[in-house]
Amino acid sequence: MPAYDDLMAFQRTTEALAQVAGRTGWDQETMMPVGAAPQRAEEMAALEEVLHARRTDPRIGDWLEEAHAPDAAADANLRDIRRSYDRNHKVPARLASELARVTSLAQGQWATARASEDAASFAPVLAEVVRLRQEEGAALAAGTNRDAYDALMQDYEPGGNAADMAAMFDKMRPRLRALRERALGATPAPTVAGRFSAVQQIALSEEVAAAYGYDMMRGRLDTAVHPFSSGSGTDVRITTRVDENDPFNCLFSTVHEVGHASYEQGVDAAYLLTPIGRGVSMGVHESQSRSYENQMARSEAYCGWLFGRMRDVFGDIGVTSERDFYRAVNSVGSGYIRTEADEVNYNLHVMLRFDLERGLILGDLDVADLEGAWNDRFASDFGFAVDKPSNGFMQDVHWSVGLMGYFPTYSLGNLFAGCLMAAARRDVPGIDDALAQGDPSPATGWMRANLQRYGALREPTETIRHATGEDPSAEPLLAYLEAKFGDLYP
């Protein structure tokens, strides 16, 4: 099979170069000197030029014509290479390079403007990012029945579309709002209190990360403005953030990113540096992080163990019972920040972003009007006003780096997580008993065996169907939320 072998040898180098580009992005968010930003933008643009040239190399088309797949893994590799080849041929090299350069600059400008609450200084570069992504979306949509936003979504959720996402949100919104109103009308949950040393928070986070299956020999934990996971195979890195008044921010951000990282570390080693040697989509990826963070780490069973462990580490934490600690961890309240939102409010934050970014890409909303549109929508959805840009439209890094079409995958990931954890609890009755001992391995082991090891072998929906034996549905997630928060807020 010379054509397939030649194609995969070529692809292996492309995949390795893409990993280098990703590591450069990780460095930019964690360790790069601020003054290096202009040069880094040029470096990222140069890498993108090389990658775009390889991804559109005419030999790929010849190899694809001649190649035959000997097995399911090879067939999936050919599927993804063909998808990438077709996609990249639609995007001019000039546009791909310019996007890499501008988003690299925009990321640094976002961080600076966010820290100084200076929305005006960020608006011009964001407008340029949006303009370039509109151009890219139009190029990708050409010759298809998709609009520009749906075309961009394919980079994150192959086969997904905004109409299906909007329909999913319409089903979820009334039940989520009813849960929120019930919780906000009840007695508030207790809160932890004290000073929680940054050093101790990181040490505890590393301990918990290891228990959840994160291999520090193939990864590392650092801090960043916005927690994220980066890499695949044998080099998968995560970040978290630390607030000495709020230990939950660090701890649960870490577990969230461990979910992403465990997916990448768990892929079959035979798929290393191939197109299927990574998570299949951001929705499926998010299913891992949300199940690890919420349905495992925020469960009543695990909170019972974590309560004792946190008192061992920090001493008095302001609550004195396992039940109160569980209520504190899962408090439903009013807040600005998506990444800190409770499970009831979280998807409502995503719905806001989905509608606004779709408007930006389709030309229904100008960047100049984005802050006002955000503030109006937030007040309508959450019942109080945004007080500053870092609590509003500038809180997330995503738009600065051009991730339009990405946000709805967060809620899709919650939906998938509901399906997966229902199946895991069905198949492994002892999950909660183990979590009560601080041991998530029965649940994480089920995820690795039934989903993670397959990487991108199957398309996203089929990945969930194969793991659970059922079609994906929002019902398991909504039933889980109503049972959990119905108990917490009777």
From TrEMBL:
It catalyses: Release of a C-terminal amino acid with broad specificity, except for -Pro. Its EC number is 3.4.17.19. It comes from the Bacteria. It holds the Pfam family Peptidase_M32. InterPro entries: Peptidase_M32_Taq (IPR001333). Binds 1 zinc ion per subunit. PROSITE patterns: PEPTIDASE_M32 (PS52034). SUPFAM superfamilies: Metalloproteases ('zincins'), catalytic domain. GO terms for biological process: proteolysis. Its cofactor is Zn(2+). Broad specificity carboxypetidase that releases amino acids sequentially from the C-terminus, including neutral, aromatic, polar and basic residues. Belongs to the peptidase M32 family. This is Metal-dependent carboxypeptidase. It comes from Jannaschia donghaensis.
